[in-house]
Amino acid sequence: MRHVIHLRSFAPWREFGGVAPRRGQHGGHFHGDGRGFSLVTDDPHVTSRMNFWVGVDLEARSVLNQRLWSDLTIGPRPVGPIGFVGSQDTATATPKATVMSYVDRQDLVLNVTISGADPLVPGAPDIDASGEYRLQYDAPNSKLLIYTRISGDQFPACESFIADSVRRKIFLGGFAPSSRSFDELIRLFGQLNRPHDIYFYSNIEIIVSGSGSFERVRGTWGNQLSPPMISMPGLYFPLNAWNDGVMRAIPMPADSGTR
Questions:
Q1: Residue 90's pLDDT is what?
Q2: Which residues constitute the domain of residue 26?
Q3: Within a domain: residue 175?
Q4: How many CB atoms lie within 10 A of CB 20?
Q5: 43: pLDDT strictly greater than 60
Q6: In this structure, are residues 120 and 86 in contact, taking their beta carbons and an 8 Å threshold?
Q7: Is residue 120 part of a domain?
Q8: What's the total number of domains in the chain?
Q9: Are 52 and 29 contacting, i.e. CB atoms less than 8 angstroms apart?
């Protein structure tokens, strides 16, 4: 039974970054991804600052292949030493990923961290995002149990989901900053990153077919500030209802114009 876990960091705004507004605007120096939470993986318009996926075999409780990449970073035109602007107008970042995995009784446990800096800004701090996953396949009852904890810099935004072999997907968690203001931007500096204090978690149960494809889901989710916001034991949701409900409930930045 093979599935793929995705972890992505993206900028919800069409433009963001920099201290000084670009040409008198208040958007920022760099092109963002201009989107909200998404499960789309095959549309070139759904971009991310960092994209990572890792395959898992839940029957064998093992990690398979993985891939990490960044979509193009587009800076201001004309270029110049304003705010955080570097000497180029486009470049592609080279992010890093670490994956630690082990088997704990019946569970496959993964700890994933991705990080990468703006390639147009010399000395820029890394964007950091982390996912902790505990997965258990209950074959006799045709269930997949997943506990997820998503944390990181809280800037820009982050999302995680899991896909089955027929590309059905379930949203596992995510977060977004309140705005693109300088107060939020400086979260990228390590001393302001508090992954153990600021996080999103979910604890879900998925009904799967014999081939491992997702059929229905139920569970709880919340963050460090609140008790579970969805908790309906015994009630399974269609995949779309679960995904839409959780993604819409996590606030996007007030200045992003996205959902």
A1: 80
A2: 2-249
A3: yes
A4: 12
A5: yes
A6: yes
A7: yes
A8: 1
A9: no
